[in-house]
Amino acid sequence: MYYIRFSISAEKIKAYSLEFRKKIVKAYEQGDTSVRKRATRFDVSKAFVQQILTQKQTTGHVQPKKPGGSLKSVLHSSTTNLTQMVGKYPDSTLLEYCEYWLDNYQQSISLSMMWLE
Length: 117
Prior knowledge:
Strand content: under 5%
Largest sheet: none
């Protein structure tokens, strides 16, 4: 059995331009129309139209937000300690590594978190 891991990077997904966003908002504000009709007209999701309308109401603009970064695990800043631990106990299981981490650093780490690091 083969497993394929998919990853979508924020760098690959481009935000809609500011001008396009302004067109959608302007079209909505000009007419007696629904969010659904604007979404269909501009070939975007209803949720996107709702999102930029809400953003316009709350912030006064519709500029794209900066793409979010990936979440860093608790262990991300401890790569040196992890490397030393694995070097010292190369044949240990993930469970043993988690127990070692708890004993030495007073931090409970799940097996999946230890696996990812």
